[in-house]
# Entry
Amino acid sequence: MGRSRGDLIVFVGKRLLTLLPVLLGVVTITFIFTHLAVPNPCNVWSGPRATQSTIQQCIVNNDLDKPIFNQYASYLGKLVVGEWGASPRGVPVLPSILAAFPQTLELVLAALVLMVVIGIPLGVIAASNSGRWLDHIVRTFYLSGWATPTYLAAAVLSIAVGPLLGLPRNGAFTSTVPPFPQPFHMSVLDALVALNFSGVVDAIAHLILPASALAFVNMGIATRMTRGSMLEVLPMDYVKTARMKGISDFFVLYKHALRNSLISTVTVIGTTMGGILSTLVVIEEIFLWPGLGSYAYEAITKYNFNGTIGAVIFFAIGVVVANLVNLVPREGVSEDAVKRALFSLPGVVSAQPVAATSESFEDAISQIVDVVYFTGLVALALALLVGVTTGFAAAITGGWQLLPGGTWYPLVQAHGHLQVFG
# Structure
């Protein structure tokens, strides 16, 4: 039997509580570094023609004349009550992030789909052709992805592959302002809700290149883990028995062997979320994707301290939640189930007397796989729920969106039908 539902709730609750000191540390480090690196950003904020009195007024308005610890205490107090501040241009930080985050979530989900749909079958192909030319090609492919810098992969796709295939390279839509409302701030979902099928095709076309770049540089972990797990499973007796019964190689590989190899693969894919988030800023900036990465880049380069800290907070939450989802299957499966799954395999000798029946093996594997599948569905539902909720919140608060030209515009003003939310 696995852990009880109460134990899982306690485990998730404890993990969520650890998010508080993580966020506090992230805010503290980011605040101190940004303010020490640029102690007086008012020279940049006020413009090259600003008078000394204007600069001094900017310093007073932003509390830059006070000690840094007083500035930190004041900012932390406002952050706790939901006042995330505004950019030097007066654009509210929280609505801007809420509008950008669903776009980033959509890009990450598309990249994860490509990693699973392409990376796992490549691992199966490499394992089933171990030591042969197909194996060498697959290994070269995923090792190339690991070795390729993010900016180089994105630049090659944008400059060479995009024009060759006729794929769009900038933004989420061809038009600057789509001809339908964007209540969720997820291009494909908004087009589907509006029943604008040409917009759906346009949104998917714009999503292909950035999602492919993001998936290519992170796909190696899924392919490598699948290949390694399959190489351990394929020599086992139950796989040989299935082949002796005349079952086709396709069903032997993808129904029998792959099912028992996915446990470690799915677990490791969850740990790649941190790597995916670390590459988002470069990917989104090259493809002008209107997401959190582009917002963070603009905030950093324009000395938008409030925007920088807000973007870092959301990235930190994403990493912690991804690791939490990754740990749930381990807590949801009992240690006894794992032992039965391992020691009941034909050809595996246990140091302890364990019933090595096919029923015990199938029950143990079913429990593990069911928990993994259920966690994957919960993670997908959670991602969509968070994306839709933040997108709708952005519409209510008057979110801002990045134009291909590099400027942010208020969606409430751009879409007259959204004024009812503002």
Q: What stands out?
A: DSSP finds 19 helices and two strands in the chain. The longest strand covers residues 400-402.
